[in-house]
Amino acid sequence: MTDASSLPLVSVICLCYNHERFIAEALDSVLAQTYPNLEIIIMNDCSTDNSVAIIQEYVRQYPQLTFMSTGTNLGNTRAFNMAWRASKGDYIIDFATDDVLLPERVAQQVAAFEKLDDSYGVVYSDAEYIDDNGRHVKFHCQRNKAGEVVSFVPSGDIFEHLLSRYFICPPTMMMKRQVFEDLQGYDEALAYEDFDFWVRSSRRYKYFFLDAITTRRRLHAHSLSKQLYKPGDRQLNSTVLVCEKAAKLVQNSEERQALSRRLQYEARHAYLTGHYRQAEQFLDLLRQHAGLGPVYHTIHFLSKLKVDLRFIRALYQKLLNR
């Protein structure tokens, strides 16, 4: 039998903000991992519901848990960095306590990492999306009736791919500690971390796609992803900043084209949701980077005038949901 302490240590950083309804299931899923060498850190980001009482009961029952709490609500990036800097793991999982880990998750990803060379920094996988009540919604990757992934999911050098499209389900990632050391953690100036982490880390490290469903990601009204493009959304400002970083990192024509597609996409959606200033910022960057064609010159002009065409996007979404 293998001594658990001889295996790589995996730090699961459990971020909680007002997850009283889901946190027990989330923590149970971490405690149920088949992988024996875990460091479990629960970081409460100043929850105002009953989350702390639930966490304290778990800490009483399971003394191996480490409980940390912020004095004020810091947001995901700062709260995670506090916990990551206190952790000791060779590998890191950023785990929101409204999601669920499947029992083999950690073991599968460590096994994948141990077969890869040092150029790989992240292992990610497929996920099942669930609703508030834990009911199946869909899988992240497109699969056929036999359960086989039929959509292209990149591995290796993915920098170009992630510039142009979204394909990683963030909670499925396991990351080498060295990646965070090199990046000095998440950028705390940002409202969300995923896109920035992908851009900066994939320029230095390869990613490996593990063809397995390892995580259940919960979709509910208070999810950060549900706030995207809503009035006052801070995530768009962060996306502008990340695109500016990406523009400084591109190295060839294929990567420039990929970034152009990203900027066009973000500009369209920002404009059609009434975020005119951010639409102008995306288009200004596109103009500097690749130039504006007639369509995007028009969108830039309409953004400056604040011509409201939000009804077009609303109509499109209504047609999609029929």
UniProtKB/TrEMBL annotation:
Keywords: Transferase. InterPro entries: Glyco_trans_2-like, Glycosyltransf_2, Nucleotide-diphossugar_trans. Pfam families: Glycos_transf_2. Gene3D superfamilies: Spore Coat Polysaccharide Biosynthesis Protein SpsA, Chain A. Residues 11-183 form the Glycosyltransferase 2-like domain. SUPFAM superfamilies: Nucleotide-diphospho-sugar transferases. GO terms for molecular function: transferase activity. This is Glycosyltransferase involved in cell wall bisynthesis. It comes from Pontibacter lucknowensis.
